[in-house]
Amino acid sequence: MATFYNSLTSATDDPLLPFLWSVKNALEGSGGSSQNLLNLLGDCIISFKDSEQYRNDVRFLKIWILYMGVSSDFGSVFMEMLNCNVCTKNASLYVWSACFFELKGRLHDALTIYHLGISRNAEPIEWLKKAQALCHQRISETWKAAERQKIDYKGSTELGNIGINPWDSSILEDLMKKINPTIKKFYGYHLSTKSYTGKVALSTLKNASRNKVIEIGGRKYHIKGCAGQGGFAQVYKAFVNSDPNDVVALKIQKPAFPWEFYMYRQLDMRITGRERSSYGLAQRIHLYADCSILICDYLAHGTLQDVINTYAVQGKPMEEVLCIYYTIEMLHMVETLHGVGLIHGDFKPDNLLIRYARDDLTEEGFLDRSGPSCDQTGEEGLFWISFQMT
Questions:
Q1: Is 351 left (phi over 0), alpha (psi -120 to 50) or beta?
Q2: Which CATH class name applies to 169-297?
Q3: In a designed cystine with 68, which of 74, 236, 254, 354 is the match (CB 3.0 to 4.6 A)?
Q4: Which 3 state secondary structure label does DSSP give 226?
Q5: How many Å apart are CA 339 and CA 321, to the nearest integer?
Q6: CB 126: neighbour CB atoms within 10 A?
Q7: Tell me: the pLDDT tens digits for 196-226?
Q8: Residue 161 vs residues 147, 164, 301: alpha-carbon distances, Å
């Protein structure tokens, strides 16, 4: 009698529990057909997807993952899971979902899911980053295996038109060796064969960066806070020599990543005039044995992703005219890049900063893209950063 009473009490306090028992029985083969399992999981999701009680409950996340596994339209299930904000700060959401998409052969989607989780700082972040790295490794091995099969089939050791695996570390190393003589000649390139040995360890900036001062290349940078964080780099807002009128962004990356600086200089050479102001501006880079510090112009208005999140928090859609405006901006920027032979490898709202004009933007200024200028950036619109391009 006591056991029965306890079961009733548990079901009242935890309405999800009876569904969990039913799903367990179905998985063990005592609950009927796979269609019954699909219906059971669907009913569970409909019942609790709007419940705050289970928003961050890993058990409910597992229900979603199971439902995604038996659904014919698993992509839509994943998007609905994101829209319902199920465990969005939990790395399990992204690791489990990415593994499922990878299993289905959706490799690009899998990598996108990892990027999404890292951009949201899902915890534990180190597990998420490790899972992403292993995914990259598996994709690289798949490419290599495919290349070997093609070579064996042709009976030749020539790669010919097989293609290039962009995740292969050896490919990246070869590219860096080829551009090394060129990049050394660029203005702002500073190379040291030693590790960074400043008085303030860069690793300490992650936890408490504000008001620390680091010295780089004879200049002192007064850190004012973390402006952004990605999978392999952190970006900090800083005053140069404590001058509040001279504000920069410091992108600290481990291991060292000179490729982005090289691409910025390619932008300088290939894109001229007003169009150049729509892309990131790198002042200099300091390369060390253990890291790189890229010094760029700083913009204070956040990213396009921040704008999207603001609307999402308010529970309303972005105005149609604003959507059209940002879409036109993005298409124009992509078209410009492709026109000069460059492809951006990480196109997403997180990498698009917002630019605001000081004065009102006139219709004429919008049409001919010559609106009022703002600090550092030129006209109002979007500003592209994080150039992982080829």
A1: alpha
A2: alpha beta
A3: 74
A4: strand
A5: 27
A6: 9
A7: 888 888 877 876 667 788 999 889 999 988 8
A8: 10, 9, 44
> Could you read off the pLDDT of 231-279 as tens digits, one per residue?
678 889 999 988 888 999 999 988 888 888 988 888 888 887 778 878 8
Q: What is the dihedral of CA 333, 339, 344, 347, to 10 degrees?
A: 30
Of the options 3.20.20.140, 1.25.40.430, 3.90.79.10, 3.40.50.970, the CATH number for the domain spanning 2-134: 1.25.40.430
Catalytic residue among 109, 168, 306, 346: 346
78: its two tokens: 């994943």
CA 325/CA 330 separation, integer angstroms: 9
Query: What are the contacts of 219-226 at 24+ separation with CB within 8 A?
Result: 221/248, 221/250, 223/250
Q: For the chain, what are the domain ranges?
A: 2-134, 169-297, 304-384
pTM, rounded to two decimals: 0.55
Which parts of 209-319 fold into alpha helices (H)?
A: 259-270, 304-314
Please confirm, yes or no, whether 297 is among the known catalytic residues.
no
* 68-81 exposure pattern, b = at least 16 Cβ within 10 A, e = fewer: bbeeeebeebbebb
